[in-house]
Amino acid sequence: MTATSAPTASPSTGLELEDVTRLLDLPLLDLVFQAAACHREHHDPRQVQKSQLLSIKTGGCAEDCGYCSQSAHHGSAQRTPLIDVDETLERARAAKAGGADRFCMGAAWREVRDGEEFDRVLEMVRGVKKLGLETCVTLGMLKGDQAKRLREAGLDYYNHNLDTGRSYYGKVITTRRFEDRLDTLAQVREAGMHVCCGGILGMGETRETRAELLLELASLDPQPESVPINTLVPIEGTPLGDVPRLDWTEVVRTVAAARLLMPRSYVRLSAGRGEMSEETQALCFLAGANSIFVGEELLTTPNPEPSADDALLAKLGLTPLGCESRGD
Ligand code: SAM
Ligand code: DTB
Ligand code: SF4
Predict the structure, then answer these.
(1) Is 197 a known active-site residue?
(2) Domain of 65: which CATH number?
């Protein structure tokens, strides 16, 4: 198999690419119905997990990811150096007060380098954990000993996305290989952390490419505990800045198929919610999405207003995870 040829079967699940395309090709409401049933079998359908993001180091990244505002190759996000621990903890406290139960810190790094900055991130993880929040970071590629140090500091989740199907990967990113992502994910597992791994829809890929991505995600063994499904937030000036918007039904289909293929995982309706109608989001929740990013900002782009999210969840009868124990 060449580096870019897509696997057509999963050794861990026995699933074939055709099985996934068959799911995605189902009549929409049949697919949603199946996914909703699967969701109700494995999860409390009233609960939604809330994660909040913070960009701890923005812009100037050496990678050329065609969608990203933070790439030094084309990104326009304002560059800022790694922020300090106190500011991070202040933001984490505010996130907790706003109802988030997981705090996710993102750095625009190609990979982690040992030194003062990594030590500072470890300190952030210790501090956020002490606040009683689940901890998540996304820092680019990792080596085994760095993964262990993160785990020892109290890191619960490492976010590292496969982004798209293997056959389309080189059209989106040229500065690393799909296998590099798999290597980092293996280090995260080896260190005993939970894996947060998903992708981006609407980068000009086909439904078959989305099937490839889903097959890869479902074939991770064990499957990722958290699966962020992002839809492209088009960034002016990036190679993908002008890609036509993906039809909402494809987002619903992908969420539903993710739920059926990874029944126990949290499926997070991630970037792109700001441009999504309430009705589309509602169908995604019915089809098995049970996690969102909350807060006014993602990393560099806007997210729905917290009050609008709270109102939507209330309308749908959905409850943030853990809010009973907090007495909200
Ligand atoms: N540098 C690290 C990395 O790439 O893993 C961490 C930060 S990176 C911004 C995290 C993820 O955000 C990417 O893997 C991608 O899936 C998602 N992302 C970035 N820009 C996006 C955009 N414009 N629209 C949708 N998702 C995006
Ligand atoms: C993920 O899958 N989506 C988040 C998080 N993991 C780090 C990031 C979305 C970024 C959207 C574009 C931006 O705000 O820069
Ligand atoms: Fe860098 Fe991550 Fe953006 Fe790619 S997605 S350019 S690795 S910050």
Answers:
(1) no
(2) 3.20.20.70
